[in-house]
């Protein structure tokens, strides 16, 4: 996937990035425990895994004086956000998340330089800014995606035996009724895929436009994966009963859908070949 | 660390940090001494201070500082600023432990500035030992430990959270000394790097940010005020009696306007102890964990009363923002509920109350209700029964 290694001499093997990466993944597993940070645990896990990827990538530019300044400034901004949060009323959760994000960014700036902090800033801001406000756009974002997934699933299922009827986002297949609810809209899937997509385009392309265009392929990947999820759930419910729509099977199929979406996005790389040369830093 | 024949530092540079530390600590020496002599939890504070002073002298004796290349080490400004901010906050918010910690920290930062970063790192264990000598730090350490254990291993919290304050202090002190020896070894081999100003600036900024995050994640909660009708000694199955306050308790609450310790019992053998403290100075209140730890109890739980506790602890209409305690000592088990407050509000968070107190508030009160069980007899039923039957009075709203 990466273009950095092509034609270049093999980098010397270092143990510490592996250890640090494993530590960060462990940290991700810890922070997704409900006692530590409730809400968006998967996003936090992926944040940690992303940081691990960061470390496992060999970083070319050492942190300079400007990076240290940026790190200190970000840490001070984090302190300001943290101390202001109790006084911020309804903005308290946002400021609290911002403080955490700025502190993480400051650590990246100190450890790996300002450029790397810039790279991490986007996924972090997605986590901190976009994810908390997603419920505000529930009607605008969720319903179209639910409807699209339900429509596509109904179309595919209608190729098989039995009549398939679709009313809004509810599929009726024989006696079985499956509602594509907000939780099944694929938004969470999209949110999680964004991280993988970000790192993919970062390593494959130079320039915002090409990266942005490649990022857009995340949408069809999510729609396809979510449609497959709806279909598999409908089939599983028809075979095993409606209890599978609520239990572990539902969760497992959700995780598989994430994997499928990632796989689809990576497979779509063929559509969008790498534009960054082997010697070019993907920064 | 110093090359043979290298110019030695001037004596005033060696003396100045200690003098700065002592001068800044002077306003709080009386409070520290009083705590050492009156609070069981802080009784051995002087030993940690002595150990810290010995370490400081040992380092200066064994690792004589070389004459610095510059008048002041620029990397020392950040820790100085950090502790100065802590001191100003301590003064503004009237938090004595913050003032005292800042005094020690500023002295250490002065050593950094005058003697260099490498030596300051070697002196850091002395700073840690000095902090352990301050009143309240042991209690804070235990709170942190209990929270960390409950956070990381809720299932194991019951056993692991029971570490005593002295054990925790000793553990921290030994770790600091071990780290000091390690740093000393590195220094002898010339492998102790000098910290850059940027690194220390970042460390200071990150420390402030983390402090802010901790504060923001633990906001104090306030509830309605609730008082015990003090002149009703008999209610329901309960009969109460005033019991003598021990000399140690009297010393601890010396300036309180009111100090009442009562024992309520029922015919069927249930017993509950109630401690009422009232003072015009919020500093006179102490968290019950503070006293309990000093009396040998190990805390298993110290958490705000939650909705899950509601059905068990039926206060009635006005439910205070109280804290629930569970502690063990040998074969004994203690269950308790406590809150602080004024005529208008209640809270389980004394630090939050002190930080967010208003001039109009006061007098300040503490109510602690505890029941103790031996062996198979659990204390919770007695506590629940007392809370249900007691004549509670709602405060002003």
Automatic annotation (TrEMBL), chain B:
A Pfam family hit = DUF3485
Q: Which UniProt keywords apply?
A: Membrane, Transmembrane, Transmembrane helix
From the UniProt annotation, give the residues forming the signal peptide.
none
Report TM segments. Answer: 12-32, 44-63, 75-92, 98-115, 122-145, 151-183, 195-217
All copies of domain Methanolan biosynthesis EpsI, residue ranges = 204-390
Keyword match DNA-binding: no
The residue stretches assigned to a coiled coil in this entry are none
Q: Does the keyword Transmembrane helix apply?
A: yes
Q: What is this protein called?
A: Methanolan biosynthesis EpsI domain-containing protein
Organism of this sequence: Thiohalocapsa halophila
Q: What is the lineage of its organism?
A: Bacteria, Pseudomonadati, Pseudomonadota, Gammaproteobacteria, Chromatiales
């Amino acid at each position: 996937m990466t273009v950095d290694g092509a034609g270049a001499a093999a980098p010397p093997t270092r143990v510490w990035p592996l250890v640090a990466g494993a530590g960060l993944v462990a940290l991700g597993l810890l922070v997704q425990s409900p006692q530590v940070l409730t809400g968006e645990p998967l996003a936090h896990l992926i944040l940690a895994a992303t940081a691990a990827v960061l470390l496992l990538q060999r970083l070319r530019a050492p942190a300079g004086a400007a990076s240290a300044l940026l790190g200190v400034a970000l840490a001070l901004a984090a302190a300001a956000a943290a101390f202001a949060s109790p006084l911020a009323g309804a903005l308290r959760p946002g400021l609290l998340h911002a403080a955490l994000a700025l502190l993480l960014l400051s650590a990246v700036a100190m450890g790996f330089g300002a450029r790397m902090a810039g790279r991490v800033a986007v996924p972090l801001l997605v986590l901190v800014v976009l994810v908390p406000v997603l419920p505000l756009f529930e009607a605008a974002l969720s319903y179209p995606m639910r409807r699209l997934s339900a429509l596509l699933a109904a179309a595919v299922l209608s190729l098989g035996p039995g009549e398939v009827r679709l009313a809004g986002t509810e599929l009726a297949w024989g006696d079985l009724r499956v509602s594509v609810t907000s939780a099944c809209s694929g938004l969470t899937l999209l949110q999680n895929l964004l991280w993988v997509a970000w790192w993919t385009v970062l390593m494959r392309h130079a320039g915002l436009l090409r990266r942005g265009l490649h990022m857009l392929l995340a949408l069809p990947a999510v729609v396809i994966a979510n449609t497959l999820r709806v279909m598999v759930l409908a089939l599983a419910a028809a075979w095993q009963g409606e209890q599978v729509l609520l239990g572990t099977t539902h969760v497992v199929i959700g995780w598989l859908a994430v994997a499928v979406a990632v796989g689809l996005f990576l497979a779509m790389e063929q559509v969008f070949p790498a534009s960054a040369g082997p010697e070019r830093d993907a920064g | 660390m110093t090359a043979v024949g290298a110019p030695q530092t001037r004596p005033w540079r060696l003396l100045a940090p200690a003098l700065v530390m002592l001068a800044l600590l002077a306003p709080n020496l009386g409070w520290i001494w009083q705590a050492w002599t009156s609070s069981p939890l802080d009784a051995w504070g002087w030993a940690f201070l002595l150990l810290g002073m010995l370490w400081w002298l040992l380092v200066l004796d064994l690792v004589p500082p070389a004459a610095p290349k510059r008048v002041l080490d620029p990397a020392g400004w950040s820790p100085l600023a950090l502790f100065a901010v802590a001191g100003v906050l301590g003064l503004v918010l009237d938090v004595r432990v913050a003032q005292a910690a800042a005094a020690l920290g500023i002295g250490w930062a002065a050593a950094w500035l005058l003697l260099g970063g490498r030596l300051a790192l070697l002196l850091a264990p002395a700073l840690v030992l000095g902090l352990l000598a301050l009143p309240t730090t042991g209690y804070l350490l235990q709170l942190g430990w209990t929270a960390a254990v409950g956070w990381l291993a809720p299932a194991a919290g019951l056993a692991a959270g029971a570490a005593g304050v002295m054990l925790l202090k000793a553990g921290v002190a030994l770790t600091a000394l071990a780290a000091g020896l390690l740093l000393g070894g590195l220094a002898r081999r010339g492998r102790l790097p000098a910290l850059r100003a940027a690194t220390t600036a970042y460390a200071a900024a990150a420390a402030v940010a983390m402090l802010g995050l901790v504060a923001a994640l633990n906001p104090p909660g306030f509830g309605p005020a609730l008082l015990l009708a003090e002149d009703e000694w008999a209610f329901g199955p309960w009969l109460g009696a005033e019991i003598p306050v021990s000399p140690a308790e009297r010393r601890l609450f010396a300036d309180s306007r009111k100090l009442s310790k009562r024992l309520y019992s029922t015919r069927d053998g249930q017993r509950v102890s109630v401690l009422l403290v009232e003072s015009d100075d919020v500093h006179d209140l102490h968290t019950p964990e503070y006293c309990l730890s000093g009396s040998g109890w190990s805390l298993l739980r110290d958490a705000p009363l939650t909705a899950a506790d509601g059905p068990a602890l039926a206060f009635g209409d006005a439910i205070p923002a109280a804290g629930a305690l569970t502690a063990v000592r040998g074969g004994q088990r203690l269950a308790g509920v406590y809150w602080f407050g004024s005529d208008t509000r209640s809270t389980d968070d004394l630090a939050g109350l002190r930080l967010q107190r208003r001039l109009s508030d006061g007098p300040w009160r503490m109510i602690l209700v505890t029941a103790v069980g031996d062996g198979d007899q659990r204390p919770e039923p007695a506590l629940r029964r007392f809370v249900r039957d007691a004549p509670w009075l709602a405060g002003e709203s």
